[in-house]
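F.,

This is the one I mentioned.
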């Protein structure tokens, strides 16, 4: 930016925010806004001065407001949740059919593993399912006759691919039986940014 045109501004009402951690300006259809730079979806540069990567979070997939990363490693629930927390997130929670469809598309293009551990658990109270990120357990996609508490301790939740379609259904399962696990983050983890 050459700084010559700072008298021109079309900020949307209530912007720019000065008290948050927003650090980038965005053009929206209703005026300029601010946002955390990690959430930007694209950018416009002045000629000859642009250095950057068009994907600000290349090692995670943005779905809605969150970023998801598949870790192709077999770990039990506590170790997988710890690995996600070490990066600033949690094992993934899922809150709608649309979100699950997008997650399944991401999993399909990342190896299409059959069994994926996510953040659901009923270890605190049998049958009382909770997400490890503390969000409401407000959507389910249990397979018919699941959860049945029959696989080991049955206190973890894995999403299992149904045939080659990429569609998945949920099973309660022992805490160590999935091939990979899915982490979710509120913003792009710094280690996954460019
Ligand atoms: Ca259980
Ligand atoms: Ca089961």
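My design for it:
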């Amino acid at each position: 930016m050459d700084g010559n045109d700072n008298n021109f501004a079309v900020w949307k009402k209530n912007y720019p925010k000065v008290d948050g951690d927003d650090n980038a300006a965005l053009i929206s259809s209703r005026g300029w806004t601010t946002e955390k730079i990690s959430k930007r979806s694209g950018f416009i540069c002045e000629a000859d001065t642009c250095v950057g990567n068009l994907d600000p979070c290349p090692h995670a997939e943005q779905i809605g407001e969150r970023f998801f990363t598949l870790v192709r490693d077999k770990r039990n629930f506590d170790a997988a949740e710890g690995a996600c927390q070490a990066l600033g997130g949690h094992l993934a929670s899922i809150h709608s059919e649309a979100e699950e469809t997008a997650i399944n598309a991401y999993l399909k293009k990342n190896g299409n593993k059959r069994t994926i551990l996510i953040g659901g658990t009923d270890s605190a109270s049998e049958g009382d399912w909770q997400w490890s990120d503390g969000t409401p357990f407000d959507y389910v996609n249990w397979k018919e006759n699941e959860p049945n508490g029959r696989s080991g301790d049955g206190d973890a939740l894995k999403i299992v691919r149904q045939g080659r379609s990429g569609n998945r259904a949920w099973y309660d399962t022992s805490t160590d039986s999935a091939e990979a696990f899915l982490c979710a983050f509120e913003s792009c983890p710094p280690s996954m940014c460019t």
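The pocket of calcium ion (ligand 2) is lined by residues 146-148, 150-151, 154, 171-173 (CB under 6 Å).

Talk soon.
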